[in-house]
Specification:
Elements (H helix, E strand, L loop, with lengths): L8 E2 L2 E2 L3 E4 L9 H9 L22 E6 L2 E4 L10 H10 L6 E10 L5 E12 L5 E10 L2 E3 L2 H11 L1 H6 L11 E3 H23 L3 E6 H4 L15 E11 L4 E12 L1 H9 L6 H16 L4 H4 L13 H5 L3
Parallel strand pairs: 8-11, 11-12
Antiparallel strand pairs: 1-2, 3-4, 4-5, 6-7, 7-8, 9-10, 12-13
Helix pairs in contact: 5-7
Length: 319
């Protein structure tokens, strides 16, 4: 892990949760930091010059947060710093010397023409005449957070940065936001791998996923293979603090090479809980049913959810 700003953490707990605000620590007073905060700019290759996180008009300009001694990247654009992720993915996709470029947010359709989602970055290789010779998919995965970051912390630092930095947040009742890695992997990463990744796998195209190291550490241990056998590469990054510049910079920590199907099944497989606990739940539902409680009240799924909603395991069988 990169070393966090010592001035932002005391006794292993973050004094305040915002690690980067419009690309800079909140206490960075350089001309560049002031300009980015004033104009709501994104320094990490967003599609437009401004930050657009959560809102175009009033963006939530928080790139990363503190979580104890750890950091969590909460904006996927943050991992585009200097487009390192594109170059390192291209190194995995193509032979050395290949001409390539990036295409952002490309929709991919299934056989019926229905959208399976947008690929974050498609890296295309092309020849001297500009014809595509190959391509690969690069997804950028960051974490959801719990807690009201905007109301409790972003709005105060935006409205009065000096007062925010001078406050003793250890005495505040405002709960710091927390990264929700489980929801991020199950609700965002796994579906992307199943729907978009499944199509790319069928086409025989390589894929790469760029993640922050804090996110990667929460995933189950993946079986690795030699680079030449891999069809999925995990590009694992950290944010390293530069004390002279009072700023964090992206650094590749490692590349993990895996097989697509094996990695997907590992990520989507849950560890079994206690069968007695589940049996107890069933017993309660049975007693409710025998006492005449309507089935809709016993079910754990709301009545307005379609009965034929696909199951994630069913989708796995088609990959």
């Amino acid at each position: 892990m990169g070393e966090a700003d010592a001035g932002a953490i005391e006794s292993g707990v973050a004094i305040q949760p915002i690690a980067e605000l419009f690309g800079f620590p909140p206490d960075n007073n350089t001309e560049a930091a002031e300009r980015h905060r004033k104009n709501k700019l994104c320094p990490y290759n967003n599609k437009v010059p401004n930050c657009t996180k959560d809102s175009v008009i009033d963006p939530l300009g928080v790139c990363s947060i503190f979580h104890g001694k750890e950091m969590a990247v909460i904006c996927p654009v943050r991992l585009r710093e200097d487009w390192m992720i594109a170059g390192q993915a291209a190194d995995f996709f193509f032979p050395a010397g290949t001409a390539w470029t990036t295409l952002l947010e490309v929709r991919i359709n299934d056989r019926e023409g229905k959208s399976a989602g947008n690929i974050d970055v498609v890296i295309v290789a092309y020849d001297a005449s500009g014809k595509i010779t190959d391509f690969g998919s690069l997804e950028i995965q960051t974490v959801y957070i719990s807690g009201n970051l905007r109301r409790n912390f972003f709005n105060p630092v935006r409205d009065d940065r000096a007062g925010y930095l001078a406050a003793d947040w250890s005495k505040s009742r405002k709960q710091h936001p927390h990264p929700d890695y489980l929801s991020s992997s199950r609700k965002r990463l796994a579906p992307q791998l199943i729907f978009k990744g499944g199509i790319l796998k069928a086409w025989g195209k390589k894929q790469a996923i760029a993640v922050h190291i804090s996110f990667y550490k929460t995933l189950p241990k993946l079986r690795t293979v030699p680079r030449e056998q891999a069809d999925l590469a995990w590009l694992v990054y950290d944010l390293v603090f530069d004390s002279d510049a009072n700023r964090y910079h992206l650094k590749l920590i490692k590349t993990v090479y895996t097989k697509f199907s094996a990695a997907l099944k590992k990520i989507t497989r849950s560890k079994p809980g206690n069968i007695d606990d589940f049996t107890s739940i069933l017993q309660g539902k049975l007693e409710a049913k025998l006492s005449g409680t309507p089935a809709v009240e016993i079910s754990d799924i709301s009545a307005d959810v379609p009965a034929d909603e696909p199951d994630i395991i069913d989708e796995l069988e088609n990959i």
